[in-house]
Structure formats: structure tokens, C-alpha cells
Amino acid sequence: MKSDNIDRKRATRNSVYRYLYNCKDFCSRQTLSNELGLSLPTVYQNLSELMELGLVCTTDEKLSTGGRRVEGLSIVSDAHIAIGVSISADSIRISEVDLRLSELAYKKVTFHRPDDPNGYAKIIAKEVEKFIEEFKVDRRRLLGVGVALPGVVSKDGFKLEYAPTLGLRDVSLDAFKEECPYPIHLENDANCGGGAEWFVRDSKRNLAYLSLEQGIGGAVFVGGTPYYGDNHRSGEFGHICVEPGGLKCSCGRQGCLEAYCSTRRISSDLGITEEEFTKELNSGNVEYMLLWENYLRHLAIGINNIRMVLDCDVVLGGYLSEFIENSMPRLKEYLAVLNPFEPKADYIHLSRHRKHTIPMGAALHFIIKFLDEL
Ligand SMILES: [Zn+2]
Fold first, then answer.
1. How many Å lie between the centroid of ligand 1 and the Cα of residue 33?
2. pLDDT tens track for 42-83
3. Residue 255 CA, ligand 1 centroid: distance in Å
4. Mean pLDDT for the stretch of residues 23-32
5. pLDDT digit string (tens) for 125-177?
6. Do 137 and 182 fall into the same domain?
7. Does 46 share its domain with 127?
8. How far apart are the CA of 154 and the centre of ligand 1, in A?
9. Which of 75, 93, 111 is the last residue of a domain?
10. 97: which of 59, 146, 287, 357 lies 20 to 30 Å off by Cα?
11. Which CATH number goes with the domain that contains 264?
């Protein structure tokens, strides 16, 4: 009976906090009382608890219809923060985000590919610590460090099962925990990116997220929730065949979308960075223009297959989404030719946070956990 009471109290406090968290307009104590069906004393009691925890504050006053001054309320969005890390074979991106998933700091670092399987865990721990020092991140407010990995992570999040671009197989979460002193969570990178995109979108329509990184992956959200599939491998869009018998893929097969649309094709394969490729492309380098057309054509085949199967918005995210903006009209032309139903291809969008989406999405795990457990 006693624990029922505690649960009920916690649920009420959670509903007050969540209302303020989601509120985009002016919100007063009276608004909370009306909208949540709570008595004013209950609202006051819960607010005083939340203010004591530093989670809610008062904001500007506004005149009520009766001409009385009314105090506004808001959550303190940086009361807690989370760090997200996205790792590839030779670089790491780190984001610090607040409770509303707004980015407070960001950094990208390159490194030499480590030889031993635990090398990545060591690099993550070292770079996170440097990031914390450099950006003066307050460790007391840090909820945890989310790590986005380009591979299949087990359903329980305890093991990285396979990451071909990192050359890793069966690495346990413990290897990361041993190196990093903060709560840590592993997640597939495309699920992170898709999660972040879905979280910040106003619309909760169905969504397929296509992650364009060194590895190509994806995530599917149906009816507002992630669809993982029977084997936790839904959205492995990188291995859709876009050219039978074509280029060799990291998975060992031929003609996969990843073989044609990985960032490698326009950077490491050419011995340059994506930025240098874009610069050359814009200055009229014919060889690069042909390569880019080939890239876009295969990307369109992959996107069209996703659209045909799922019939939902397709969002392009990951590192390369930063560089694709200028080519969206061309990409839509290719898509229009392939699709007999949709001549405009207006179901395709670029992710809101571009190359920051994945590290931000890695941090999202701890924000959702905080919201659920408050
Ligand atoms: Zn493949």
C-alpha cells in the first residue's frame, strides 16, 4: 500500500515535469492544474520538489485575463547533461547535449586505427576525458556516455556482436566499462541517428532513417516507436543490393548500397577528406563529378527500395548528409525516374542535425532514461 502511494506520487511529479518539458507556450501553475487535472496545492507541492532538485525554475511574468501578474514556469534544460560518442575506424565525434537534446559542445578527432579489439574502448575513454576537460563539462551533472557503434549491438546492449568497418566481433560492454568511469550505453549508430531525428521532429509520422557514414545503416520507426525486427537487424539498408555483381562490400558480398555510398568512396578511397572532395566537385573536377553522379544514382536506387517497402518519409543522416544538401534536386530527379507513383520525391529529407545527429542520438539514451525514471 505504501509503495503504491510512493509510485502514485512519483507518477504525478513525473507528469508535472513532462508537461513542462513538452510545453512550448507560456505555462503557469494554473495551466498545470487545469491541464493535468490536479489541485493547486498538489501542483505547488510537486513544483517545490522539482525546484529543490534544480529541475524547474520560474520564468517571466505575464498578465492574466483578469489583469493579475502570473509567473511562468520552465524546466532547467541543463540541470543534467549527457555525452554521446560516435566512433568509426579512424575518427571519433563527441557531443554534449542538455535535457532537451540541444547541443552544448561538439568535437571531432581523428586517430590511427588501433590493433587490439579493446583499443577503441581506450580511445573513447581518453577522448571523452579530454573533451570533458576542454569544454569544462560538469561531471556532477553528467548522466552518462552513450556510444554509437557502426555494427550490430545485442538486444540487451551488453555486446557489440559484429562491426565490419571496425574489424570487431563479440566485444563485451565490460571492455568499455573498464575504461570509462561513467555510466555507459552501447547502441547501433543508425539507431542513434534515427532516434535523435525522431525525437526532435514535430511530426511523429512513420520514418525510415538512412545513415550515410563509413558504414551505411538505418533505423525504422513505425507508429512512433522503433521497429527492430525479429533479429534486431531491421534497417540494415547498407546491404540492400543496388548493383548485382557490382563493387565489393565490407560484408563480403557484391553490389551493396554500402559499397557505393559509404563515405569511403569519396574520401579514403581517393586519399582525401569529404571536404576536399566537395571543394574539387564544386570547382568542376570532371572525374569527381562523374563519381558523384554514380554515387547519387546508386543512393537513389537504395532510397527507392526503402520507400517502396515502407511507404514512409526517408531521412538522410550521418556524416555525409552534411555534404549532400546541394545535390538534393539531382537526387530527387533520380528518385522520380525510379518511382512510378511519386514524381516529386518529396518524402525525402535531410536530418535536422546533419553530421551531429549520431553522437547526439547516442546521448539520447540517458535523457530518455532520466525522463522515465524521474
Ligand atoms: Zn554488404
1. 55
2. 999 999 999 999 999 998 777 677 777 888 999 999 999 999
3. 7
4. 89
5. 999 999 999 999 999 999 999 999 888 888 777 888 888 778 888 888 888 88
6. yes
7. no
8. 20
9. 75
10. 59
11. 3.30.420.40
Bridge partners of 145?
A: 83, 184
CA of 152 to the centre of ligand 1 (A): 13
Cα of 355 from ligand 1 centre, angstroms: 23
Rounded to the nearest angstrom, the distance between the alpha carbon of 97 and the centre of ligand 1 is 33
Residue 21 has pLDDT above 90, yes or no: yes
CA 248 to ligand 1 center in whole angstroms: 8
Phi and psi (nearest 5°) for 128? -65, -40
Q: Is the pLDDT of residue 2 over 70?
A: no
Provide the domain count of the chain.
Answer: 3
Q: Are residues 164 and 246 in the same domain?
A: no
How many whole angstroms from 254 Cα to the centroid of ligand 1?
7
- Summarised one tens digit per residue, pLDDT across range 90-99 is 889 999 999 9
CATH code of the domain containing 49:
1.10.10.10
Q: Are 20 and 27 in contact (CB under 8 A)?
A: yes
Are 174 and 162 within 8 A, CB to CB? no
Joined together, the cell numbers standing for residue 77 give 534544460
Residues 170 and 90 in one domain: yes
Q: How far is the CA of 216 from the centre of ligand 1 (A)?
A: 9
Q: Which long-range contacts (CB under 8 A, 24 or more apart) does 129-132 make?
A: 131/83, 131/94, 131/96, 131/105, 131/107, 132/83
Give the Å distance between the CA of 261 and the centre of ligand 1.
Answer: 11
Q: Are residues 333 and 270 in the same domain?
A: yes
Return the SS3 of 35: helix
Residue 240 CA, ligand 1 centroid: distance in Å: 7
CA 318 / ligand 1 centre spacing (Å): 18
Q: Ligand 1: distance of its center to the CA of 167 in Å?
A: 14
Are residue 162 and residue 226 in the same domain, yes or no? no
Distance of CA 5 from the midpoint of ligand 1 (Å)? 53
Type of residue numbered 327: S
Helix (H, G, I), strand (E, B) or coil at 66: coil
Residues 284 and 331 in one domain: yes
Range of the domain at 67: 2-75
Q: Give the residue from 75, 104, 128 where a domain finishes.
A: 75
Q: How far is the CA of 38 from the centre of ligand 1 (A)?
A: 55
> Do 263 and 332 reside in the same domain of the chain?
yes
Residue 274: per-residue pLDDT:
85
